[in-house]
C-alpha cells in the first residue's frame, strides 16, 4: 500500500532502484534511458519512474538532500515496496589530494558523526559499508566498459561542508586511519538501512568540488559529467 511519502502501489516500484537526490535529474534519467517510463510517484515532487532498461525493470526515484529526507525513502522502498537493491548516484566534495574534479567514486565505507543509527535503531554505529558483492559487480562493469572509478571511504555529513564555520576543524575530527577521501550527505543512511533490513546498497559519486582545487564546475558541465556514473549504475543492474 502507498505510504504518506509515496503514492506508488506495491508492484509499481521495481526490485532495483537508481536514486539521485534531485527530482529533475531522476526525471531526466528515466526519460533518457528507460523504455516506456511510467511516473508512479510525484508526492512532494519526489518523482519516481518505472520502466525497462535492456529488458530489466528499473525504477529511478529521487531521495532529496540529507539523511533525514533520503532515509525515509530508502526505508520505505526496502520495507514496504520490497526493493532488493538501491544504487545511490550523487555528487561530492573531494578531501583527497589525488582526486580530480569530475572523478567517479565508488564508496566502500561511509563514516558519520550523526546519531542516525542510534535514533533509528538504538545502535551506536558510525561506520557502515556498501554491499560487497554489489560493489564488486560495479567495479567489474566499470572495467568492462572502460569507465574509470576510484574506490574509497567517504564522510556523510549533516551539514553542507561549504557552509561550515571551519571545515578544517571538521576534518581534524575524522578517526585515525579512516582514509576519508570525500564528503556527501546520504550514503551512511542508505548503507545502514540496507544492512538493518538485509538488503543491498551501493553509492556512486561524481566529484564536483575539491578542498584542493578552487576551480568551479558549471551546472551544465556537472550534469554532462555525470553520464558515466549514471550509465555505470544502470549497466550494473543487469
> Biggest sheet, in brief?
5 strands, mixed, barrel
CATH homologous superfamily grouping: Nucleoside phosphorylase domain
Highest CATH level, the class? Alpha Beta
Strand content: 25-35%
- How is the CATH topology named? Rossmann fold
- Our count of domains comes out at 1
Structural category is alpha/beta
Question: Strand order, biggest sheet?
Answer: 5-9-8-6-10
Helix content bin: 25-40%
Your description of this structure?
The chain has 238 residues and is an alpha/beta fold. The protein has a single domain (16-235), classed as Nucleoside phosphorylase domain (Rossmann fold), CATH 3.40.50. The protein is 32% helix and 28% strand. It has eight helices and ten strands. It has a five-stranded mixed β-barrel with strand order 5-9-8-6-10, surrounded by four helices. Helix 5 links the parallel strand 8 and strand 9 (180-184). The longest helix has 13 residues, at 67-79. It starts with 15 loop residues before the first strand and ends with a helix. 45% of the residues are buried. The model has no long low-confidence stretch (mean pLDDT 94).
Structure summary:
This protein is of the alpha/beta class and 238 residues long.
Label this structure with key terms.
single chain; alpha/beta; Rossmann fold; 32% helix; globular
Topology:
Elements lengths: L15 E4 L3 H11 L1 E7 L6 E6 L2 E6 L5 H13 L5 E10 L9 E8 L4 H6 L5 E3 L2 H13 L5 E7 L10 H6 L7 E5 L2 H10 L3 E11 L8 H7 L1 H9 L3
Parallel strand pairs: 1-4, 1-5, 5-10, 6-8, 8-9
Antiparallel strand pairs: 2-3, 3-4, 5-9, 6-7, 6-10
Helix pairs in contact: 2-6
Amino acid at each position: 500500500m502507498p505510504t504518506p511519502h509515496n503514492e506508488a502501489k506495491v508492484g509499481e516500484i521495481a526490485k532495483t532502484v537508481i536514486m539521485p537526490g534531485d527530482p529533475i535529474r531522476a526525471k531526466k534519467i528515466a526519460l533518457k534511458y528507460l523504455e516506456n517510463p511510467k511516473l508512479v510517484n510525484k508526492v512532494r515532487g519526489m518523482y519516481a519512474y518505472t520502466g525497462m532498461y535492456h529488458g530489466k525493470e528499473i525504477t529511478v526515484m529521487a531521495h532529496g538532500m540529507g539523511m533525514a529526507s533520503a532515509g525515509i525513502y530508502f526505508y520505505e522502498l526496502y520495507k514496504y515496496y520490497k526493493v532488493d537493491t538501491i544504487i545511490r548516484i550523487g555528487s561530492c566534495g573531494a578531501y583527497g589530494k589525488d582526486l580530480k574534479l569530475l572523478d567517479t567514486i565508488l564508496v566502500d565505507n561511509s563514516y558519520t558523526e550523526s546519531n542516525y543509527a542510534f535514533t533509528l535503531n538504538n545502535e551506536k554505529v558510525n561506520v557502515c559499508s556498501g554491499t560487497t558483492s554489489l560493489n564488486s559487480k560495479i567495479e567489474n562493469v566499470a572495467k568492462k566498459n572502460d569507465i574509470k572509478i576510484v574506490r574509497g571511504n567517504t564522510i556523510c555529513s549533516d551539514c553542507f561542508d561549504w557552509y561550515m564555520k571551519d571545515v578544517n576543524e571538521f576534518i581534524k575530527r575524522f578517526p585515525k586511519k579512516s582514509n576519508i577521501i570525500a564528503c556527501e550527505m546520504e550514503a551512511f543512511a542508505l548503507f545502514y538501512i540496507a544492512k538493518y533490513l538485509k538488503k543491498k546498497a551501493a553509492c556512486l559519486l561524481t566529484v564536483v568540488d575539491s578542498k584542493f582545487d578552487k576551480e568551479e564546475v558549471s551546472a551544465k558541465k556537472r550534469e554532462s559529467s555525470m553520464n558515466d556514473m549514471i550509465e555505470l549504475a544502470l549497466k550494473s543492474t543487469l
